Amino acid sequence: MSNSNYPPVVRGEGATESERHLQRLAEKSFLRLWSYPGVQRKSGPLYKELTDLLVVMGNHVLLFSDKQVAFDMVGPVEVAWARWHREAIMASVKQLRGAERLLFAPGTTLALDAKGTQPFPIAIPSRSAARVHRIAVAHGAAEACMKNSGGTGSFFISPDIGDSAKQPFVVGDVDPKGAFIHVLNDHSLEVVIKELDTLPDFLAYLEAREALIRGGRLAGVPGEEELLGAYLRNGTPEAHAFPRGKEGFSVFFPEGHWETWRTSPERAAREAADKVSYAWDGLLADFEQHLLDGTSIVRTHSSVADNEFALRVMATTTRTQRRALGERLIEILSRPCPPRRPWSAGLTQVTPAGGLPAPAFVIIGVPNKGKLEEEYRLDRQGLLRAYTMVALLLCPDAPGAFGIATEPIRPHGSASHDMCYIDRSDFDAAAEAEARRYRKDLHIFTEVAKTGGTVFEYPTEEATGISSAAPVANRPSGKDRNKPCVCGSGRKQKKCCG
User: Fold this and answer.
1) What count of Cα atoms within 13 Å lies in the side-chain half-sphere of residue 202?
2) Where are the beta strands (DSSP E) in 69-173?
3) Which of 110, 180, 104, 171 is nearest to 138 (CA)?
4) What span, in angstroms and rounded, lies between the C-alpha atoms of 458 and 267?
5) Beta strands 418-423 and 181-185, pairing class
6) What beta strand segments (E) does 7-85 contain?
7) Per-residue model confidence (pLDDT) at position 415
8) Burial of 446 (0-12, 13-18, 19+ CB in 10 A)
9) How far apart are CA 188 and CA 118, in angstroms?
10) Max alpha carbon distance in the chain (Å)?
11) Most confident among 84-98, 166-180, 263-277, 469-483 (mean pLDDT)
């Protein structure tokens, strides 16, 4: 079955249990092909660890530093926090700064193992093109936070706190003179990644979070989950966004956002509607596994990095887009082949409302009518290429077309799959003429009208819309900072949340 022309990718594991947990979360949401723990950088004759987890997908680079530091539950809390803050948070800041500098240094060589025998398989974007996201994951203080402050163990976020080492269980902009660094602890990381479980959805949150905190728009929020709740409850069908305060004011998010969101009918409706989307995840994981193992029957490229681009198109879909694609996949696999030809097919283009045009996705189901497996796969790949070209013809605004060929599910539950990607830049006049011939000769989509519509993230928003104004409190500035803090603590604003 295998016709491998490059060795499989042998991946490592995180060095500690917390790093392995981070690895598992990342691999489930961001997928194994783009997530690598313990990446090593060549330094002279040796290799040294660059960072605890490196995620690279296209121009997006996510650097994770994971620190497990015990919190002194016996001594003075201020002293214990200052020590923990230094060894968990600021040590991560230092590691992330160094990792980013070395990653983009001229001549950098990366490997997946300390001996340098497994090259890093994904292309690193240039420094000018890269969009870098830095995440410090600090473990060990959640229990102390719950004991001293109540709540879930998530830290209070107050960007104007100044030196957060002096204020137990409060974090701000930990390095305001450098590029922004997200600080999460073990509790908040898991909440965010499980709620936003595709890389596009997670990145959208990180970018909005950075703009809110670094842009001076946030006064404070009592925990990461409250911030996430405010984000998910606010926005439009086009995108989530954080609520804005009055002009010239930053905002304080009081408690209640997360619980309101967690128990809302919108969240329940979304979870129910999203179940079908995981069929798309399963297909993506199958392609990914064969690519990492080097076990695809036929490939047109000679390395993981070359093949990765096509699969990335499939992976850079949001959870809502995957819902529509999963529905179409299941439909193709379930319905009988039409009488005029021995296969079934569907064409889908799921463009977010107000977003840039999305790629076109073609799914064809082709049963094997008694051919040898390799002959069947070659014939099916030729048919898939034809369908993918016609998809570009029928979707003129699509930047590319991604084709998937599969077969009706076999009695034992497995099925083989093929993929094909054609970029719009490669679709010249000759290719367009070829696509028109395929459409005529093979009757590709000649009887199917292209339909469109909106897939709502929250099915209930067809009637109600997403909440556009989650509750916030405006933070006073200047002399008003002597007034009682908006969080309700009773202390002056300048002595509390800023």
Assistant:
1) 28
2) 110-111, 131-139, 156-157, 170-171
3) 171
4) 7
5) unpaired
6) 35-43, 46-57, 60-68
7) 77
8) exposed
9) 33
10) 82
11) 84-98
Query: What's the whole-model pTM score?
Result: 0.88
Read off the pLDDT of residues 256-301 as tens digits, 9 standing for 90 and up.
999 999 999 989 999 999 999 999 999 999 889 888 887 765 444 5
Q: Are 469 and 243 in contact (CB under 8 A)?
A: yes
> How far is Cα 137 from Cα 171, in angstroms, rounded to an integer?
13
3-state secondary structure of 175: coil
- Side chain identity, residue 30: F
Bridge partners for 56 per DSSP: 61
Phi/psi at 276 (5° precision) = -70, -20
Please state, in angstroms and as integers, the Cα–Cα distance from residue 177 to each residue in 97, 131, 214, 418, following that order: 12, 18, 11, 48
| Of 165, 171, 172, the residue nearest 153 (C-alpha) | 171
CB 401 within 8 A of CB 393: no
- The CA-based angle 412-417-418, given to 5 degrees, is 165
Closest among 443, 355, 439, 457 to 394, alpha carbons compared: 439
- Take residue 68 and report the two structure tokens written for it: 């497990």
Tokens representing residue 52 in the block:
């605890």
- From the list 186, 193, 188, the residue with the least C-alpha distance to 28 is 193
Cα 295 to Cα 1, 347, 462: the distances in Å are 8, 28, 44
Tokens standing for residue 87: 């060894």
Q: Alpha helix (H) ranges present in 31-174? A: 77-84, 91-103, 142-149
Instruction: Confirm if 353 and 387 have CB atoms less than 8 A apart.
Output: no
